[in-house]
Fold:
Amino acid sequence: MKRLFRRLINLVRAINLKDFRRFMHSLWRKRRIINQMVQRDFKQQYLGSFLGLLWTIVQPLVFVLVLWLVFATGFRNARSVEPIPFALWLMTGMFCWYFFSGGISRSAAAVISHSYLVKKIRFQLNILPVVKLLTELRIHLIFLGILAFFYLLEGIWPTLTWIQLVYYLLAAFVLMLGLGWIVSALNVFSRDMEQFVQLSIRIGFWMTPIFWKIEKVPESLQWVFKLNPAYYLIQGYRDSLIYGIWFWQRPWLSAYYWTLTILVFISGAIIFKRLRPHFADVI
Structure:
């Protein structure tokens, strides 16, 4: 933890704060363009399909129903491990993971997929990962709506901690944006980066407590898995919807997550800004 704080302090000292503020302010000034591009990106995902935008509802709904049938009926004994049906416990973690992994995966190709914009000097390419993440967020909100429906179907009513999902969505978005800037910029110079991201996502899925509880791991090794920032987000979703635990009740975990996230966010902004002038030479 101390090493992370030191690195963060050293990184902040090395930054030209005026340039960084200007970089962030440019995102805010381009908010209308970002919104328009999100609308376009959202529609293009399903362009040419018969159901069109309805796929945003059909896909998560079919996925949820499959999970429900498999785990709520095929594995009834799993109900005993949680205060709620195992299917709900599992879906809560998986929906969070799909948002996190999907956002990073789509961000990796953000610049490459808009190569025609690279040579437009005035265009702020740093908004491209933002567009991908906001598109993914729209889809994720549909998932959350469906998840809430199944909670109600089980007779589980909203509690005050449900509003904490807004906090975890923000926490996820900041980290994903920092990572998105890094992988999208590096992917321009090496297309292996996109494959590396996909491989990391596959490994991360099984290294994150989604299907299994972290209590199954020896206590002496649990801290290793908690270093994974996705653990904080997935556990946060479950804390909010299932256990009624506020994020400030996990102070050390929250401090670690935000230290790492701020470090990644600032690093991502710097890396993207410094590599941006060379994009046109490669694409």
